[in-house]
Amino acid sequence: MAIIGIDLGTTNSLVAYFKEDHPIIIPNIYGESLTPSVVSVSEDGEVYVGRIAQERLISHPELTVSVFKRSMGSKKSYRLGSKTFTSEDLSALVIRKLKEDAEEFLGEEVDEAVISVPAYFNDTQRRATKTAGELAGLKTERIVNEPTAAAVAYGLHDEHDYTKYLVFDLGGGTFDVSILEKYNNVMEVRAVAGDNFLGGEDFTYVMMSWFIEHHNLDVEDLSYKEKSLLRKSAEDAKKALSNSRNVTVSCTINKQNYELLVTPDGYEKRCESLLGRLRNPIKRALSDASIKLQDIESVLLVGGATKMPLIRTFVSKLMGRFPSVAIDPDEVVAMGTAVHSAMKRRNKAITEIVLTDVCPYTLGTNISLRKPNGFHESGHFYPIIERNSVIPVSRSERLVTVYDNQDIINVEILQGESRKADDNVLLGELNVPIPEGKAGQEAIDVRYTYDINGILEVDITVISTGVSKTLILEKNPGILTEEEIAEKLAALKSLKVHPRDKDENRLLLAKAERLYEENIGEARMILSQEIVIFESLLDRQDEREIRDYAVRFSELLREIEDYME
Ligand code: AMP
Q: Which of 267, 308, 310, 332 is the best mutation target for the ligand 1 pocket, counting ligand atoms within 8 Å of the beta carbon and taking the most?
């Protein structure tokens, strides 16, 4: 039984497989790597997926649907003839097609898949994607972010030991920017930002609008079929501009043929406002990662729309360097999902790659703050795990009682970025009884632990009584079996240990203490300072900072040891 990687795109989807020591794209029955994410139903109820469906987009628009990934996770339904579908159902049909193509190509059954999603998909959208995979008959335990998958595909090709990447992913319907850092054998996502409603389709739309404006047409007067034809011609022209300077958009409307000659300059001008919208997510991702633009060593282009010369020029100017295009931007995400699938099955060839990811939203709780007039005001959001924290992650915060004789503390588990608790998403609640006393006298520790599969475990412990409660929130409820959850939680156990107690950190501190005792003078002073710094980092519980510092700290200890010999 094989495992495959799937890039479920807005316009096109791809399937890939990890063969021996490298990923390969599996072609569909037409020998093409891209399968259009389009579904069509015939009059007698037969379902078509891919290229045939794409053709029917024009001949049978009322029975065909595309770009449904944009409604993933929503209640929107699509009526095709006598049948009604959700975006999940339609995606399941696409995945099923990819699965069949893969089985045909590999000559064996496929039972599992790793599927990629835009980094900014929320939980509902991710859950819907997972359900689509399951509906297609595939175990779908791992959903990965598209830019992460892309960087992983590049990571395998990259010889540098230490690199900071910016992944610029402009697909059909989404834009994602990710900042990734690779050092030694670790690939880490430092920040993600993006726009779920900006993609290549919008650039096609600019071309269509230009045409409509030029000929003084009214979109409302166009039939569905005419609009589809115009869209196709506009998209062809947009693509053709990648290779030639003058291109024509043509379309027959109301039996009359219309044409528009487009030039790269004219088109670029009309795309200015779209280009402007690409800027903000880049700025935000860099600032969230605390990385300066000039520190980015490589810029990776992902997604079909990055083939447009105007995008490449824009990225080069903005980033001050030429982007990497060694892997086809259409295929790189799928390649990465195949690498992920091999990691999941623990393929020997790639076990040395350690992968970390980030938590896309801030997870926190609701607290009361004392106002200058002495009264408390509830409803303030208190972040515990900040967005873009590297996962798996475990953080603990101490909260105290607000009122005299308070006998219960209620912890709301919230997800979001708003300062106001009410504006964030309530994921769950936990409460514990506490002994009555003066305000501020009683305290609880609230620990959030978030793993790579989206399981959030919340533990609260009353300091004075030791009473504790736990709540496990699954990002994809009902899909994991109890055994799987138990297995994953067992893996989490080691994480929940305060870093101070972790073996490698304890070892470093013990060694430093020993060297302190064995030395005098300057070495002793340095050691004493470094021990204090390391201890304070351990208190802050930032795994990344600790790890970075530990590397330098152990080097220093080695130098002191060498000097003593
Ligand atoms: P994706 O979702 O990554 O498959 O991206 C599809 C988008 O890329 C669509 O909007 C396509 O029109 C666009 N695209 C694909 N190939 C090209 C090309 N050669 N030049 C310009 N845009 C392209």
A: 308
Q: Kindly give the confidence (pLDDT) of every residue in the chain, 565 residues in length, as a single tens digit, with 9 standing for 90 and above.
A: 999 999 999 889 999 999 988 999 999 988 999 999 999 988 877 888 998 898 888 778 889 999 899 899 888 899 988 888 889 989 999 999 999 999 999 999 999 999 998 776 767 788 889 889 988 889 998 888 888 888 888 874 455 667 788 999 998 888 889 888 876 556 667 788 888 789 999 999 999 999 999 999 998 899 988 998 899 999 999 999 988 888 999 999 999 999 999 999 999 999 999 999 999 999 988 988 889 999 998 899 999 999 999 999 999 999 999 998 889 999 999 999 999 898 888 765 544 344 556 777 889 999 988 777 777 788 888 999 988 777 778 899 999 998 899 999 999 999 888 888 888 888 889 999 999 999 889 999 999 988 766 678 899 999 999 998 988 886 544 444 556 556 644 544 444 444 445 667 777 887 888 788 777 778 888 888 888 888 888 877 777 788 889 989 999 998 988 887 6
One-character DSSP codes across 8-54: E-SSEEEEEEEETTEEEEEP-TTS-S-EE--EEE-TTS-EEESHHHH
Q: What is the dihedral of CA 336, 341, 346, 350, to 10 degrees?
A: -10
Residue 235 alpha carbon, nearest atom of ligand 1: 12
CA–CA dist 68, 50 (Å, integer):
13
Q: Which residues line ligand 1 (CB under 6 A)?
A: 9-12, 171-172, 200-201, 204, 235, 238-239, 242, 303-305, 307-308, 330
C-alpha of residue 137 to centroid of ligand 1, in Å: 29
Residue with CA nearest ligand 1 atom 6: 172
Determine the distance separating the centroid of ligand 1 and the alpha carbon of 272, expressed in angstroms. 18
Which residue is it, tokens 């030791």?
Answer: 466
SS3 call for 403: coil
Task: Report CA(311)–ligand 1 centroid distance (Å).
Answer: 11
